[in-house]
Design goal:
The protein is of the alpha+beta class. 29% of the residues lie in helices and 31% in strands. The chain contains 5 helices and 10 strands. It has a 6-stranded mixed sheet with strand order 1-4-5-7-8-10, sandwiched between helices. A two-stranded antiparallel sheet has the order 2-3. The chain has a two-stranded antiparallel ribbon with strand order 6-9. Helix 2 crosses helix 3. The longest helix is centred in the first third of the chain and has 16 residues. The chain starts with 21 loop residues before the first helix and ends with a helix.
Amino acid sequence: MLYPNGLKKTYNKIITHKNRGMSLEEDINESNTYYLTRDIGIIYKKPVPITIAKVDFKSRQEAVIKEAYFKTPSTTDYNGIYKGKYIDFDAKECHSKTAFPLSNVHAHQIKHLENIVNHGGIAFLIVRFTLLNETYYLKAEDLIDFTKKNSRKSIPITFFREKATLIPVKIFPRIDYLKIIDNLYF
């Protein structure tokens, strides 16, 4: 990019196996910043619960974690509050055109979402089918119902198209999932 006064700025985003699935998370994080700065809702990405076992202290500024362990199984990626309601959700990307593998959602995560619903909160998944360029809001109730009634190891795309809500990707906010919550709950 060329800016006034001859300033040049380039962006070289390297796509690796490690960061290829970050676009949905980045879109949600940008949406959450949009909601927060406009006082619409307060939703944060939860930190991963780890215990640090070994640290290499070359100096205070150059401390490097050498060994760490998960304290407990992580529940979901995001939680917060919107219009007085607790919300809790997970974001998943899928590289299939036909189905979402249930191996992407662990049993303890489904139980966690079920507990949120049972206590009056709003729980859901945001699932992006990257090859189809489609992003869906799937209510936890529909996910739970599917897992209880089916022995399948994946949820077909037809289920998402029938039961879930397609989220259009926009500029601001990128993933407007609070608009869907408004339509479903308020």
